[in-house]
Design goal:
The chain is mainly α and 265 residues long. Helices cover 76% and strands 0% of the residues.
Length: 265
């Protein structure tokens, strides 16, 4: 029953990621609460389960030239290094602190969802890669360090990456179409999930393959369902907005609950 519930939650995650771009942050709390999994083990398993989807999304953005190869490489390298550092840093951080961090990330992501959609216009057209606008982030060093920040932070919290990087990008580059910013976040996501998983395997850290299999199966089922549901919601006035608000509210409650459990003990 617990495995079935966890799989169902991951189907919902796949649906939400496709429709509203948020959902992966639920995987670690679900594994910790429903499967009674150690938080660190849940993080390594969740990051491993994100690899197929994150890689496919990043490849698609590079192939369609939403982001240049050069900038994608810089972000990828930074996120890879950050992810590797996060894996080794987890050894020196208690499970309680990690659980608090995951709760705060969920709370932050829910709060950010409520705020950010006032400013984002979904009709924005991605910029194309040409000689006059080759880079989204104008500094190569900044691209690298943004990737490192995402890789390290997401590696510690078990989130896919965009939930940490997008708020920073949207505040700093509000004039850039959101699809271009999402492309940067997805390149970072691909790197951090791949390299955190490889690092965990090399250093002998545990990965619960049962959790990985359930999460991947749920996500791969939910993604096409999200595409169908998203099309139908788009035809209804305010449908997507109401769903975003609902998801944001749930994330806030979940994050508050996880943080409260740690604080109260």
């Amino acid at each position: 029953m617990q495995s079935l519930l966890f799989t169902l939650i991951n189907i919902v995650v796949g649906i939400l990621v496709n429709i509203v771009g948020v959902g992966g942050v639920l995987v670690v709390p679900a594994a910790a609460i429903i499967l009674q999994c150690n938080t660190k083990l849940a993080i390594s398993s969740a990051l491993c389960s994100f690899v197929p989807g994150a890689t496919a999304n990043a490849t698609s953005k590079i192939y369609t030239k939403v982001i240049s190869h050069e900038e994608a490489a810089q972000v990828f390298l930074g996120a890879a290094i950050g992810a590797c550092l996060s894996v080794f840093s987890l050894e020196f951080i208690s499970s309680t602190a990690i659980q608090l961090l995951v709760g705060l990330v969920a709370l932050f992501s829910g709060s950010w969802e409520i705020y950010k959609w006032k400013a984002i216009q979904t009709t924005q057209t991605p910029q194309q890669d040409d000689d006059n606008n080759k880079y989204i982030v104008k500094s190569r060093a900044e691209s690298f360090f943004l990737g490192m920040f995402t890789g390290f932070g997401s590696g510690l919290s078990g989130t896919g990456g965009p939930i940490l990087l997008l708020p920073v990008l949207l505040l700093r580059y509000s004039e850039v179409p959101v699809m271009n910013l999402v492309a940067i976040a997805q390149c970072a996501s691909a790197a951090l999930t791949i390299f955190s998983t490889v690092t965990n395997l090399v250093k002998g850290s545990d990965i619960e393959w049962h959790i990985v299999a359930l999460a991947v199966a749920g996500n791969m089922t939910g993604l096409p369902l999200g595409h169908i549901i998203g099309k139908r919601l788009a035809k209804k006035k305010g449908g997507i907005i109401l769903l975003r608000i609902g998801v944001a509210g749930f994330l806030c409650l979940l994050g508050f609950y996880m943080a409260l459990v740690v604080v109260v003990g």
